[in-house]
């Protein structure tokens, strides 16, 4: 077992992953470290660069090539499944988190060993307006849905201990959401201020579509709050409908002719639309449950490689992964 595993999901990271690994190689980590690079179906030549890093570097590196693009959180889960460190740090491939901050985060986690998770936060984020807006909404929704502490900022640059990692990888659903899994596992969470730089090159991979998928996973996979809100709304509208029916009956017996057919039709259309929306929400829950029960894989691994250096790395990383797959009812597959 080693001190630290650094898990890096890679998607369109051809320009940044090489310099990132080079900078990480300069770190002096007590008890040693390994780097786990997970290629999440990148359409560019990211995996070719990753393979060259594995073959040429003197660092202990494990590369994982996923069969297709599964999403950042699925890629992180793939990396966690082979991580062997006492602590695991997740860092993006865009170089916005300086590699020097990895050691700072690791040292902070070891000093505060009573905490299971350390999230980082920034004095000023160098994201686009759209990305910052999406991040604010994600944190607001997490406050509401996941019982997140309000003063905690959820970021992808985080450190978890082995206890948290072992509990997280036991999740077998096809739609993992890392922060949801963490908050389900522990409330012993701290935070650390770190530096945030501008992106090394290219544009953010978080498109509006990807943010919608992330929010859907949060809403549906890790909370029943939407269903509870739907039930509350249904009770409220039924109560209002009963009152309106009572008013209509009273007007009929007092000789007044009920008026407002236009508003009545408008109300019917609105409430019919809401009913369809709620049915769609229930269908989303049932659909995800169906895919989980039928064994839709969380990720599919095409290839795993490790660097020639054996120090601080398991000699046989395939066997532990196969055992993990077995105990998860073959929800993961290796091609």
How is the secondary structure organized here?
Blueprint: E1 2-10, H1 17-24, E2 33-39, H2 46-56, E3 61-66, H3 72-80, E4 85-90, H4 100-111, E5 117-122, H5 129-145, E6 158-161, H6 162-168, H7 178-185, E7 189-194, H8 208-221, H9 225-253, H10 261-293, E8 300-306, H11 318-327, E9 333-334
Parallel strand pairs: 1-2, 1-4, 2-3, 5-7, 8-9
Antiparallel strand pairs: 3-8, 4-6, 5-6
Strand arrangement, major sheet = 7-5-6-4-1-2-3-8-9
Which homologous superfamily in CATH is the superfamily of the largest domain? Spore Coat Polysaccharide Biosynthesis Protein SpsA, Chain A
How many separate domains make up the residues?
Answer: 2
Kindly state the number of beta strands. Answer: 9
* Number of H/I helices: 11
GO molecular function: undecaprenyl-phosphate 4-deoxy-4-formamido-L-arabinose transferase activity
Transmembrane segments: 219-247, 259-282
Keywords: Cell membrane, Glycosyltransferase, Lipopolysaccharide biosynthesis, Membrane, Transferase, Transmembrane, Transmembrane helix
Domain Glycosyltransferase 2-like: 5-148
Structure description:
The protein is an alpha/beta fold. It has two domains: 2-222 and 297-334, Spore Coat Polysaccharide Biosynthesis Protein SpsA, Chain A, CATH 3.90.550.10; 225-293. The protein is 47% helix and 16% strand. It has a nine-stranded mixed sheet with strand order 7-5-6-4-1-2-3-8-9, sandwiched between helices. Strand 8, helix 11 and strand 9 form a beta-alpha-beta unit.
In short:
The chain is α/β, with parallel strands linked by helices and 335 residues long.
């Amino acid at each position: 077992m080693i001190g630290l595993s650094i898990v890096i999901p890679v998607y369109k990271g051809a320009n940044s992953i090489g310099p990132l690994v080079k900078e990480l190689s300069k770190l002096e980590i007590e008890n040693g470290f390994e780097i786990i690079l997970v290629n999440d179906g990148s359409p560019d030549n990211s995996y070719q660069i990753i393979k060259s890093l594995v073959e040429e570097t003197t660092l202990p590196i494990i590369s994982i090539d996923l069969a297709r693009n599964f999403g950042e959180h699925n890629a992180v889960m793939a990396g966690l499944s082979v991580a062997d460190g006492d602590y695991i740090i997740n860092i993006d491939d865009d170089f916005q988190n300086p590699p020097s901050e990895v050691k700072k985060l690791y040292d902070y986690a070891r000093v505060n060993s009573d905490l299971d998770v350390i999230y980082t936060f920034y004095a000023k984020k160098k994201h686009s307006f759209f990305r910052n807006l999406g991040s604010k909404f994600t944190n607001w929704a997490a406050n509401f849905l996941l019982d997140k502490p309000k003063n905690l900022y959820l970021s992808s640059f985080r450190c978890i201990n082995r206890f948290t990692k072992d509990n997280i990888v036991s999740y077998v659903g096809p739609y993992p959401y890392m922060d949801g899994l963490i908050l389900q596992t522990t409330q012993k969470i701290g935070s650390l201020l770190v530096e945030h730089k501008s992106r090394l090159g290219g544009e953010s991979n978080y498109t509006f579509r990807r943010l919608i998928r992330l929010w859907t996973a949060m809403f549906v996979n890790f909370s029943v709050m939407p269903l509870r809100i739907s039930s509350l709304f249904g009770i409220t509208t039924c109560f209002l409908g009963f009152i309106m029916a009572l008013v209509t009956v009273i007007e009929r017996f007092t000789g007044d002719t009920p008026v407002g057919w236009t508003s009545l039709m408008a109300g019917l259309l609105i409430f019919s639309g809401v009913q369809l929306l709620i049915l769609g929400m229930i269908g989303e829950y049932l659909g995800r449950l169906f895919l989980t029960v039928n064994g839709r894989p969380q990720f599919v691994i095409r290839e795993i490689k490790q660097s020639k250096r054996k120090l601080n790395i398991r000699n046989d990383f395939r066997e532990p992964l196969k055992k993990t797959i077995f105990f998860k009812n073959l929800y993961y597959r290796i091609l």
